[in-house]
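Question (not urgent): is this output format expected?
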Amino acid sequence: MAAIEVDLPAKNEKDNEEEEEEEEEEMRHDEEADVPLIPGKSGAAQIADSYDGLLSKIGVTFKLLIIVVCSGIGLLSDTLEIMSISFAKDDISKQLKLSRQEESTLAGVLFAGMLLGGLVWGRAADIYGRRRILLISLSMNGSCAALSALSTSFWMFLLARFFSGIGVGGSLPIIFSYVSEWVPRRLKGGIISAVATCWMVGAILAAALAWAVLPYPLQHTYWTSWRVYLLLCSIPSLLAVLLYFFLAESPVFLIQKGRNLQALEVLRRFAPSSSDISQELGQLKRVLEDENIVTSSPERWECSAVIKEFGIGVVDLFSGELLKITLILIAVILPVHFGYYGFMLWFPEYIKTQSNSSGEIVPQDYVYRESLYVSLASLPGNLISVFLTDIVGPKPILCVSQVLSACSVFLLWKYNSPDQTVILTCLFNAVTAPIFNMVDVLIPALYPTKTRGTAFGFHCALIRIVTIAGTWLFSLFIDSSPTAPILLTAVLLFSSAIVSLAVPKITSISH
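Got this back:
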């Protein structure tokens, strides 16, 4: 019995020491946490409320720059795909022996695919995730673009470009949704504009590659210069797929889908090791674990679900508070794209027609030089967007750019030589560049997470429709007086500027 009396006190002392250590550990966690628990508020609600604060503390990191660069590569790959056909169209037509009617469908089929892709992939990104759909759409874009370079018949080429267009139509709207959800509100406008600047980079790259490859025919019956050109243009899409494979899903999307623990883990890996937010994330994680909330699993892909949800998503855009926003953006976006793309097609073709009729010889490299100069001319407008959007807001920049664009059109009235065309088209492109950047900033700012991809895809689909309509209508004026197209473009830009005054003022861009 004496041995027993000695052992019992020793065991009790050990238990007491373990309990004291556990209590001290809990007290230390509570003292170190920067964000106190809010009584009566769930862990999921606290994560949503503190998300922008967490991103602000993380700041601009190397990982954020990787996301921005990757998104920029994805965007410029879409630009390459859109512009490459306009440069290679004549060579493709010669080798595949296309009729005039078949040749006219080459660009149109890409826009048709983009129309369908914007509608389908935009909604799918709201259901299945930004990163997942970006991987699918960019893979489709790159692989089908490469396949079109290997085509041996018109129908094979047409089918490949159509599916490539579906990929482009999906990645264009989702890229901006994805990158905007990694950035704190105070930096969102500038960083989205920086990504949008990559459209200019893609346009420059498309013209530079065309100038370097297309004028020099290869001594081969199959491997002609246009095939090499299209293959080179498909590389950035496949590179973007590789880069996105190593990136994580948007934490905002994960939170919206109730996968909060996964979102916290993504943020933990996103923050630099020297960051002090690990304690906040740790406390939020413990709150969720204490609540025993079951984390939802990723949705399985179902085509019927996408079609059904697409209808629901579009109805949401025209319901409640979003109705006014959607109608205003339609009235702002569509006139600009109708006038801009119609005018940018008409004016160079009009000058060429006038030059040919007067006997003036247009240099062989005129198209490449003009494209390079016009693309570079948008640099000042892009820089204004990057550095001023977060200071003055997107609305003032949008309105001023629209008015300046409308005024600049009238300068083109009295000039009709190729060199003057390049200079004045550069001016027009310089003042219109901020308009498109501000649209890319406004859509993620005005729509909530659950409809952001749908909204982007919907507006991009409408843009494809008015782009086709604008290029067709303006093509009717190539052999006529410049009065009608110039006045039409100016009226469209002025009307869009007036409607822009009704765009809600944005002081802080939402997640």
